[in-house]
Amino acid sequence: MSTAIPSAAGATPQPSALHSQIPSGPQGYANAQAQAQHIFRQKQLMAIKQQQLIHQQQQLMQQQHLTQPQAQLMLRKQQIQQMQFLRSQEHQHLQQEQLLLQQQQQQQQQQQQQQQQQQQQQQQQQQQQQQQQQQQQQQQQQQQQQQLQKQQQQQETVKPNTSTTPIIKSEDSLSAITKTMAVPSPKCMNRTQTSGQAVLRLVQFAEQLNPGEQAMDRSFWDSFVQDFYTSSSSLKLGLLNIESNERRVFEVNQSLLARCLHTQYMCSISSVQMTLGKTAEYIFPGGIMNVECPKATQFVMSSEGIWKIEHMDFSCQGFEEYIDRASIRSEPIPNSKKKTPPHHSVFPDSPINKWGLPPKLFHILQISDIAERLGEVAFHSIVTGLGPQDSLSAIAFHKQQELVKDNDNEAMRNMASSPVVKTQTGARPQQTFTPQQQAAIRQQQMHAALQQPPTTPHYQPTYPANNQFTTTPTTPSATTSPMTRKAI
């Protein structure tokens, strides 16, 4: 900073350094004085400018100190505004989601209402169809009753001494039955053709073997067995082993029928169907109804009751397994030396065994067959008073005799006539009987053996196999017996 010496009042400042340079005379003194004043003014201007700069710097410093909190406040305001904006956006999103949820709920409610309406319509249609079916059944029953009455009147006029055919009475369902199972003897083979009431019941049985989605429900099969079978009924199932051509016949009692039917659907079986062809229905003297067809051959009828199966025989002559093309896989042959090894087809595992049944169902049949045989031994022991071993030996001896007779009969039937031998020596072949006559004769022999046990029982080391006790029927058959309706 430059310093200046103030001049006295009324005096002109004269710099000390210029005294030696001041020229003499008034002209030179005036010039020197003007120069000195000019220099002094310049110095004053410089000092003023410096003071202004210092003042400006101080103001700038003060402004900087003041602007920092303001900037922070501005930042805070901006942050608050951003938060408020984000919150408003979130609130809008929430409102939109709530609206969407409400719309979805409304749509679901509308769909549920539509489904309920459709279900109600379907139920109404089903009820109408059921009513129509009931009306048709009632009409058919009335027509059949009229036909039966006409036939009975004709029989009474033609054969007044013979027994009349029982009249079938309908009560909101098919004909009722009161008689129990009875095997017709050879003397009772005179048959009277009827109007098809038992065939209709057998057709219903075949239709309900494929219930669709209800097949996986065990309660459905329980009600199915109660509807079609009596409490003492049984199912006789004959199977064929395609590898060894061995035949085995299994008997399933009424308590295991529902489990067998339910198990076969549990073993990857989708449907079971039964076809009936060329059916012929007859009534034997004694109130036994017989239905002859490739699948069932005997039905039992009585006047009051419901149609139920007493006995059913099903003989398998063979089976074929079909595989879907999509399930066959193609894999390369291992250890092949070719660049492009050939492929071979790989078939999926079969769900059935060599007997044509799922393993679980075959296991149930084996258990049922053993239980049936043990029941025969227990019954023989109770009736005759013998011990378990003696009863088993007596039954085994009787079964072996039957097996020998059956083998002899089959050998005589299969013997071909020779063109050379003109005469025949030895015992002649016995007269052949129908399967019904054979069953009647066997039952009579069983009753005689149980009533008169042998005095010297023959002991056998083991109980013969099931295939030694069974015969293969030429056609499957079904025998039914109704359960009596008891008035309460």
Automatic annotation (TrEMBL):
Q: Which InterPro entries match?
A: LIM-bd/SEUSS, Pfs2-like
Query: What biological-process terms (Gene Ontology) are attached?
Result: mRNA 3'-end processing
Lineage top rank: taxon: Eukaryota
Q: Has UniProt tagged this entry with the keyword Coiled coil? A: yes
Region span, Disordered? 1-30, 443-488
Q: Name one GO cellular component term.
A: mRNA cleavage and polyadenylation specificity factor complex
Q: Where is the composition biased (Polar residues)?
A: 13-30
Positions the record marks as coiled coil are 94-156
Name-wise, this protein is LIM-domain binding protein-domain-containing protein
- Bilayer-crossing residues are none
Q: Which UniProt keywords apply?
A: Coiled coil
- Upper lineage: Eukaryota, Fungi, Fungi incertae sedis, Mucoromycota, Mucoromycotina
Report any Pfam family annotated for this entry.
LIM_bind
Source organism:
Rhizopus delemar (strain RA 99-880 / ATCC MYA-4621 / FGSC 9543 / NRRL 43880) (Mucormycosis agent)
